């Protein structure tokens, strides 16, 4: 059974509709975010939580912001995906799920607009809404190491339904996937949401929020290894990322505080070496605390 690490609550998210106490869920080390759209304009009831995601983002159109509701811990399996017997795991395969209240269906959008029903049509979402989704993804990248990358194909609904756009992953690709995808990309699921959401713009905003490069979204391996998340560099941490960081520090000439060289165990020598590196870069001098974040990681491995 996986152990949950790092912050489990998205800052400022309401727990007014908390379902984990009723439905439990499995702990897991999250490395994937799946985006859904609700095809409604208000917070769903989710059958009392039986089909709930980890979080729901409800637009406050007057205030131009998203109000977040959290239903399960970040690293506890939720219940919004179909999971067929005998196939691949979906809800429990290291996935944090987010429902975006609104629609991706152009017919629904036209009908609601004609009726004067306020809503967000996510393929043409306002910038403030996309920026709010991006801030969540940048937080997931920084705190849980979810890569800011994903599939290239985000076909419009209804083409996306039942894999009409050929976008759905095979079981093998799904099991190997890390990053951000849509409901329409998950195997064993026929839904086509979130349709043609502007994924490239969301990634651009998320990377700008963290001051990391804005590469073209895709699934190719980047030249710089993905930042695993701050949770791997805290007191008592022992993992391969600490060793990888230490070796790179030595390679770049910032290993003076090691007595016998880097190891898997995060310690004061690692922090001091990271701080020395941060002091050497003008981009990092104002925050030279010795704790690696996405920008420190990128500059160190560039």
From TrEMBL:
Protein name (record): N-acetylmuramoyl-L-alanine amidase
Annotated NCBIfam families: PG_bind_siph
Parts forming coiled coils: none
């Amino acid at each position: 059974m996986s152990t949950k690490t790092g912050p489990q609550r998205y800052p400022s998210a309401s727990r007014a509709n908390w379902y984990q106490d009723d439905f439990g869920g499995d702990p897991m080390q999250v490395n994937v975010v799946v985006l859904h759209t609700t095809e409604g304009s208000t917070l769903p009831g989710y059958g009392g939580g039986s089909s709930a995601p980890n979080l729901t983002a409800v637009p406050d159109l007057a205030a131009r912001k998203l109000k977040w509701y959290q239903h399960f811990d970040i690293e506890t399996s939720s219940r919004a995906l179909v999971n067929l017997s005998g196939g691949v795991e979906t809800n429990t395969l290291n996935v944090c799920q987010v429902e975006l209240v609104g629609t991706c269906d152009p017919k629904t959008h036209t009908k609601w607009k004609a009726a004067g029903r306020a809503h967000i049509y996510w393929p043409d979402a306002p910038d403030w809404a996309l920026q709010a989704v991006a801030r969540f993804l940048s937080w997931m990248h920084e705190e849980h190491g979810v890569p800011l990358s994903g599939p290239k194909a985000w076909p419009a609904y209804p083409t996306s339904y039942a894999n009409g756009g050929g976008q759905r992953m095979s079981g093998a690709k799904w099991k190997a996937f890390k990053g951000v995808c849509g409901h329409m990309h998950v195997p064993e699921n026929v839904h086509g949401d979130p349709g043609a959401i502007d994924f490239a713009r969301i990634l651009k905003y998320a990377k700008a929020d963290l001051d990391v490069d804005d590469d073209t979204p895709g699934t190719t391996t980047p030249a710089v290894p993905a930042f695993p998340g701050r949770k791997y560099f805290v007191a008592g941490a022992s993992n391969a990322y600490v060793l990888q960081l230490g070796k790179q520090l030595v390679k770049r000439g910032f290993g003076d505080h090691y007595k016998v060289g880097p190891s898997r165990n995060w310690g004061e020598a690692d922090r001091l070496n990271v701080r020395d590196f941060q002091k050497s870069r003008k981009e990092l001098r104002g925050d030279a605390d010795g704790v690696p974040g996405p920008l420190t990681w990128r500059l160190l491995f560039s």
